[in-house]
Amino acid sequence: MLLIAHSRILDYLSTQEIAELYTINKLHLNHLKRIKALKSSIWRGDISEKIRPKFWIYQCPIYKVQQDVCKMLRLPESFESPYQFIQNSITLNKPLEESSLDLEATRNEILKDIPRTQLITDNQKEQGQLLRILLALAYIKPSIGYCQGMNFLGAVLLKVVKSEEITFLLLLGMMKKWDMENIFPE
C-alpha cells in the first residue's frame, strides 16, 4: 500500500521517486509495527523493570514539565528544583497568590487515603514521599486539589521510578498530556 492520493500518480513519477515512496511506506509500516509491538508489550507486562523508569520518562518528558512548573511559579527556567521550592512553600504554609487551597484540609484528606494505598502500606518512607507528592500536586493545581485515585497513580509511579521529584513531574505531565484534569474535576 503506497501512501499516495491517486493510483494514476505513478504514471507521472520516475522510477527513483516510486522507489523512494516505497521506502517511505516500508519505513512507515515498520514504525507502526514497532508501536503496535510496544503497546502489546506494555499490556502484557513484558517491559523489564530496568527500563520502566526510562519508559515513563520518555512518555512524559519531565524536563518540559519542569520548565512549565517554573513558569507557573514565576521561577527562572534554569531553577534547579521547582519541586523543592514547592515543598518549602508548603512547609512555610505559603499558598500560591491565586490559590484558595486549604493545605491542612488537603493534608488530612490525603492522610486518610494513604493507609489504603496497597503498594505502600508497609513502607513509612514511601508513605511520606507520597504525601509530599500529592500535596505538591494539590499546591500546583489548586483548582483540582486532591482527589481519590491520585494516590494509586502516585504510588505506582513512585514504585517504578523510585524518585519523589520525578514521580511528581510525571504525574503533572500525565495530567497535562492525557488531559487528566477532566478525570479529577473541581
Automatic annotation (TrEMBL):
Biological classification of the source: Eukaryota, Sar, Alveolata, Ciliophora, Postciliodesmatophora
GO terms for MF: GTPase activator activity; small GTPase binding
Protein name: Rab-GAP TBC domain-containing protein
Domain (Rab-GAP TBC) ranges: 46-186
